Amino acid sequence: MKMEANHFKFLIFSFKSADSKLKIKNLKLLLAALALLFAVIGSDRAQQLPVGHATDFTSNQYFEPPHEQQVKMKLSGAEALPLPGGLLDVRQLRVETFGVDGKTELVVRAPQCTYAPLDGVANSAGHLELESGDGKFHVEGEGFLWRQNTAALTISNRVHTVIDMPAAATD
């Protein structure tokens, strides 16, 4: 399976509260937490400050022109907690990639990972599942390293692959 290199950018965040409506107070708190997070990431890493966390977040990456209105990759999670060094502890990670036609190409799921947004690297000793958009290709395993700049995914342990191909016709 050939993948082109993706350059991931946090372009849009959408956050949902339990009733799917953000109240002004919650929005102000969220914006303050994000501002503090970006200030901490840009400051001296030896003096990291603890900040709040995000829940039910989504970030979209779009195609280059002329398809700049179409989503190329969608990263979402149930929770993201800031860690020292500008890292994020992401829970219930879900990454979806799409073709220009809008069809899902890949879906990647992991219960937990550590993500370095400045380096474009995610890793975990935990479980990972990858599935093609048509459901005919499925890989899962324990322990992974994803390098976004090169679109390289390494799954280190207990790798299991299923390829669903139609049975060959017999004459």
Distance between the termini: 30 Å
Number of domains: 1
Shape: globular
Under the CATH scheme, the architecture is Sandwich
User: Class, according to the CATH hierarchy?
Assistant: Mainly Beta
- Percent of residues in helices comes to 10-25%
Side by side, the strands of the main sheet go: 1-2-3-4-5-6-7
Which structural class best describes the helix and strand composition?
Answer: mainly beta
Largest sheet: 7 strands, antiparallel
Query: Hey, roughly how much beta strand do the residues contain?
Result: over 45%
What do we call the CATH topology? Answer: lipopolysaccharide transport protein A fold
Q: Please count the helical segments.
A: 1
Radius of gyration: 18 Å
CATH superfamily: Lipopolysaccharide (LPS) transport protein A like domain
Mean pLDDT: 75
Encode the helix/strand succession as letters.
Answer: HEEEEEEE
Poorly predicted ranges: 1-50
Overall strand count: 7
Summarize the structure in words.
It contains one helix and seven strands. The chain has a seven-stranded antiparallel beta sheet, with no helix packed on it. Residues 1-50 have low confidence and may be disordered. With 171 residues, the chain is mainly β. It has one domain (24-163): Sandwich (lipopolysaccharide transport protein A fold), CATH 2.60.450.10. 11% of the residues lie in helices and 48% in strands. It is globular, with a radius of gyration of 18 Å.
